[in-house]
Specification:
Blueprint lengths: L4 E4 L3 H13 L4 E4 L2 H11 L3 E4 L2 E2 L2 E2 H9 L8 E6 L4 H10 L3 E4 L4 H27 L7 E12 L9 H14 L3 E4 L5 E5 L2 H11 L7 E16 L2 E7 L1 H10 L7 E4 H6 L6 E3 L1 H7 L3 E4 L5
Parallel strand pairs: 1-2, 1-3, 3-6, 6-7, 11-13
Antiparallel strand pairs: 4-5, 8-10, 8-11, 9-10, 11-12, 13-15, 14-15
Helix pairs in contact: 5-6, 6-7
Length: about 300
């Protein structure tokens, strides 16, 4: 969790149930029983996730949602509507007004918690795009890069997500110094593209935070790059079988492991000390080597 959850709900029993559910999952939460209080809590706390009821005593939740999205910081948070309105037209109206998700009452607690987890991932993804707009290197031309160095980084699964953004920023700055082209992965990881595997390996070594438990996969292959740019935002994509292979491998690694695929390893003029990691070939069909972090 990156910040507190703001519960905008006027029914005390329902607000208390939501609060206890979030507390049980160790998520900080604050209740606002009306829109006046919600506006105050929004400015005081800057929550990253808002759970919003639509029928409130001092106004309509959709009106406030449109007001929120019109503000400069309005898209820095994720809004999950939880409402008794079940008509498809009402649901569509809420989503078009700026809601990121919609849950109808009554809801299953496990479904709501899963949707809150998705909302948190979306917060991290949006934060990643804001970092891209501030820290990205010059964008490459659209097109295909036949022998790109690919680096995938994933945070430790058990790590506290409130520490995600500082570590994410550390990696982003370090990789950018080696002219890496960065994209966030929705689970909080990073995908980086380099002119060569050797450059990607140098970037990984130089950017690695002390005692890092982040997982890393180095690969080589053909990558297609496409971008859309707007004021303050750079959104893009890297596509190709090699990218998919690297991301798949990154999900298999234990915390702290660095892995280099066999094609990337053989492409290096001076490979680092490494040992074969059998699960890579067994599970994906792609042989890979575990890099020894201690090499100079």
């Amino acid at each position: 969790m990156i910040g507190p959850v703001l519960i905008v709900e006027d029914q005390p029993a329902e607000a208390q149930a939501l609060y206890e559910l979030l507390s049980w999952s160790r998520r900080p939460a604050v209740v606002a029983p009306d829109l006046r209080t919600a506006r105050q809590r929004l400015l005081e706390l800057r929550p990253t996730v808002i759970i919003l009821d639509l029928n409130l005593p001092d106004g309509d939740g959709l009106t406030w949602l449109r007001e929120l999205r019109a503000r400069s910081f309005g898209w820095s948070m994720t809004v999950l509507v939880v409402s008794g309105r079940t008509d498809p037209d009402h649901i569509a109206e809420a989503l078009l007004a700026g809601a990121d998700d919609y849950v109808t009452k009554p809801y299953a607690p496990q479904e709501l918690m899963a949707r809150i987890a998705v909302a948190e991932r979306l917060v991290a993804l949006r934060a990643g795009f804001r970092w891209l707009a501030a820290f990205r290197p010059p964008l490459p031309a659209h097109g295909r890069y036949p022998s790109a160095g690919i680096l995938v980084l994933r945070p430790p699964a058990s790590g506290s997500s409130q520490h995600l953004l500082p570590e994410w920023a550390h990696w982003a700055r370090g990789l950018r110094q080696e002219n890496g082209l960065l994209l966030p992965i929705p689970d909080g990881g990073l995908l980086a593209l380099f002119p060569s595997v050797a450059r990607a390996l140098d970037a990984l070594r130089h950017a690695d935070p002390e005692t890092s438990l982040w997982r890393a996969v180095l690969h080589i292959g053909s990558v297609s790059v496409g971008w859309l740019e707007g004021p303050g935002l750079a959104a893009g994509g890297m596509f190709g079988e090699a990218v998919e292979e690297a991301i798949r491998l990154a999900y298999l690694l234990p915390a702290g492991m660095w892995l280099i695929t066999d094609p990337a390893y053989t492409a290096l003029p001076t490979p680092p000390p490494a040992r074969l990691w059998p699960p890579a070939a067994e599970l994906t069909g792609l042989p890979a080597w575990e890099i020894q972090k201690s090499y100079g």
